[in-house]
Structure formats: C-alpha cells, structure tokens
Amino acid sequence: MAATLLASQALAAYSTGPPSLQVSACPMLAVASYNKTVPDQTDFPPTEVALCYTNDSINLAFSAHNETNFYYDRSQGTNEAIWEYEVMETFIALGDKDPQTYLEFEVNPNNVTFQAFIYNPTKVRADGAPFETFFINNTLEAGFTAFTMLDKDQHLWGSSVSIPLGLFNVDNGSAQGTKWRMNFFRTVVAPETFPNQTLGAWSFPDKASFHITPFFGHVEFI
C-alpha cells in the first residue's frame, strides 16, 4: 500500500510539475522521499532526505535503503569525481526561479564530500554552452559538516550533513520565510556494472542528467 502510494505521488509530481516541501526549524523534520529511476521511472531503492534549518545552517539527513554495494573509490578525496561511484546529492539555490547558479553537494559511503557552486546559464546543461564549477575546498572553515554511517546488515547507509546558510547570503536567524529550489539524487552502481549507474531523484528530470533546473523542487522554510 505504501509503495503504491509513493509511486502514485511520484507520477503525479512528474505530470504536474516539480514537487514542493515545507521545512520547519530544527528539530522538526520534513522528509523528501523517492523510489523511481531517472528518467524512466522504474523501481529504485527507497531513499529519503530529512530537512530542517537552524539559526545558521541547512541540516539534511540522507538515508539510502536497500543498499548492496556501498561502492566507492578509497583513493578519492574532497571534490574529486566521487559521482562516478555511489553518492547521495543535493542541489540548492535560494529563490523560487529556475536557477542558473546553485550549490551541488555530494557525499559517498566513505564520508568523502564534493561541494561546489555550478554556473549553468542554459539551465539544462546544453551541449556546447558554458558550464562552470567553482569548488569549495576548505569545508570545515566554511561551515560544512558531514557524518556518515554504514549498516551493511540492514543494507543501509546514511549521512548527516550541515550546509551554512551564509553561502546563500542568508544572515543568521533570517531563514524563516525564505524560498528555495532544491533537488535530491542518488546513484547506484556495483563493481561488476561500473561505470553504468542507476540514477534516482526526488524530482526526476526528463533525461539522465541532474543539471536540469526547471525540475528542481520548490522548498519553503516556514
């Protein structure tokens, strides 16, 4: 019953536009869930992102269910190509318009992170058009935190993440009432299928690309 409900909600979101979510101050949590692939909407391992905001940060708790691979490259470090393996991601922009510039944050099962501002003026990563990445390297000094736990017996991994509001010119204590565009993604791949990934998303775009901002969901901090 629950799976059927989630599937119908996902189909409705695809046909009527990006989903929306109201997010309260911590410790109250709002949850974005998804279980469909990009772009063909077949079954995907259930994935959740629980959100809230504090005086100075956006807090996210990623949960990747039905995990069998926990696959990553141990040699990779901060801001390297961790997206080639298994990651959970969020794209975040302040405002309610389809953004040209947004934060991309990724975390893998080894708690390695990727964080950068993306400049995507076509909003769809058009071939031959500008597409620039501006890395944030000093993550602790900038206010990022990430803590990842693996539970292989339960086929689960999760990451608790904090992203500073100041990155988006939101002053401390001023988050309530702000509107955002966000999306959440997960990649699944096994050693025997690498580099061919299965992709899942909260607001699933119409092709296998995460950088299509008209499909970002609408989020309001209440």
TrEMBL record:
Identify the Gene3D superfamilies for this entry.
2.60.40.1190
What SUPFAM superfamilies does the record tag this protein with?
A: CBD9-like (SSF49344)
This protein is called what? Answer: Carbohydrate-binding domain-containing protein
Q: What is the lineage of its organism?
A: Eukaryota, Fungi, Dikarya, Ascomycota, Pezizomycotina
